[in-house]
TrEMBL record:
The lineage of its organism: Bacteria, Bacillati, Actinomycetota, Actinomycetes, Kitasatosporales. InterPro entries: Isoprenoid_synthase_dom_sf (IPR008949), Polyprenyl_synt (IPR000092). It comes from Streptomyces cahuitamycinicus. GO terms for biological process: isoprenoid biosynthetic process. This is Polyprenyl synthetase. GO terms for molecular function: metal ion binding; prenyltransferase activity. Gene3D superfamilies: Farnesyl Diphosphate Synthase. Its cofactor is Mg(2+). The keyword Cell division does not apply.
Amino acid sequence: MTDTAVPTTQIRARLAGYESRFSALFEEYFHTLGTDLEVPSFSRFTPECLNLLRDLSLRGGKRMRVALVYEAAGLVTDEPVGAADVAALSVELLQTHGLIHDDIIDDSPTRRNGPSTYHAYQYKFPDHPQAAIGLAILAGDLALALSLRILLESTAPTAIRQAMVEVQTRAASDTFVGQILDLERDFSPATDEEALHCVADYKTARYSVLAPIQLGLLAAGEQPAVIEEELRRYARLVGISGQMRDDYLDLFGDAHVMGKPLGADIRGGRRNYTVHAILAAAKDAEKTVVESALGDQNCTEETIAAVREIAERRGVPAKMRSDMQRYAELASAEAADWRPRWRREAVAFFEYLPQWAMERTR
């Protein structure tokens, strides 16, 4: 791991500060949206939709994408950057869109310790399933439109507004491609590791890491296109390491800490990093156990435990931790190369981020 110029405790304090400050900013945005959005007075469904968007959005967790926006602006200057607030709101609205559509695709009943938007509509309209899915899709679409609208309506100079919209539009389209690739992957038993890296890059890294950094730099008056290749390499490495961690925790994490049963990806038939590693290491009879569990929504906890035991017997958890660490260190080294270009204190955050992702337990 590359040494950072700022103590870890200071970086963690900055993260907590971003989370607290942004929560108030997001609350104010939704309060204003209720009066700014043009809605016919007779409509009951539109205000309900906005309430669901607000509820899901404000249940956000660590706000790491928000931190990336502000820290990217901090690479350029230690002064407050007003356009960074608008960029952060756009990033989180796009995230809300993604969560709503993810939960439709996965038919997930919960999200962020509350009901998913899709299941909230199912509960409201139990006798109208098509209306429920239609309203959920439209809620997600509205969040996407709002994420672009807030950029277009900002007070930033025209050139910066346009560049930000281009970043978010590209991030959204890349994510849609990633979602398609993610579903396609589960139909391909012979998926190789490079294909998994590609899915992680498109589905996660480009909108969760690359776009927030680009937006923060633009907000501070920097032109990210000058070092786009370096930023893309960093984002891809962070995305791969982070996705490996997500996949690892789904089978080897602590169910109590995570707040959900282990093995959801197995039951969902997801041929992710963990499944790929298990099948690569397992013997013939063991592969049969794993393959039979994949996609079985009624798969018992005992079967999940058996798959986990096979993985542990073949050294899969240790190998995955080693791989995650390697990609995290490569990402940190990539960020360290930014020191001559930008403020060292801010660069330290980007060196630290991959290791933080390795340490998280949910």
